[in-house]
Amino acid sequence: MQAARRANVRLPPEVHRILYVRNLPYKITAEEMYDIFGKYGAIRQIRLGSTSDTKGTAYVVYEDIFDAKNACDHLSGFNVCNRYLVVLYYNPNRQF
Amino acid sequence: QLMAMTPEQLQAWRWEREIDERNRPLTDDELDTMFPEGYKVLPPPSGYMPIRTPGR
Predict the structure, then answer these.
(1) Which of A1, A30, A6 is nearest to B53 (CA)?
(2) Mutant choice from B8, B53, B56 vs A, greatest count of A C-beta within 10 A
């Protein structure tokens, strides 16, 4: 990761510091969220869906865009409570 | 100074600027405008220690 930074590897344009996560267990706790996503770097904020049509989804904001990319690469299809997480980059033009 | 750079250096410099712009700190107000309705902020659990990566 450090090497990639120094070599100025260009990030693809869709890479964003905010990740949109789907297929979360409804009863996931703050501890678990911070535990799963905090492994990849400092978290700026997590927003969890609280209404019937947003439940099971969340936005995770990382402090650093490289951490977000790393997390997205590693957590897509990650198994939590027998569910596979869907992790996408935030897209301002696609408000779910 | 720009003229003194090789094309590769210039490209690297552009990418660095682009990443810096995409990686600048976000304020809470900015964050608030970015999300649709129906989400609430999840407060970090007590004892959450963010992993600090060395600054670029």
Answers:
(1) A1
(2) B53
Picking from B32, B20, B13, the residue whose alpha carbon sits closest to that of residue A61 is B32
CB contact under 8 A, A50 and B22: no
Q: Is A88 in CB contact (< 8 Å) with chain B?
A: no
Rounded-to-integer distance, Cα B47 and Cα B24, Å: 26
What would the two tokens of residue A69 be? 């990319």
Token representation of residue A36: 């799963």
* pLDDT beyond 70 at B2: no
Q: Name the pTM for this structure.
A: 0.83
Asked if A93 reaches chain B (Cβ–Cβ under 8 Å), the answer is no
**C-alpha to C-alpha distance for A53 and A5, rounded to whole angstroms:** 38
Residue B56 has pLDDT above 50, yes or no: no
In tens, the pLDDT along A23-80 reads: 999 999 999 999 999 999 999 999 999 999 999 999 999 999 999 999 999 999 999 9
Closest to B19 (Cβ–Cβ): which among A11, A31, A45?
A: A11
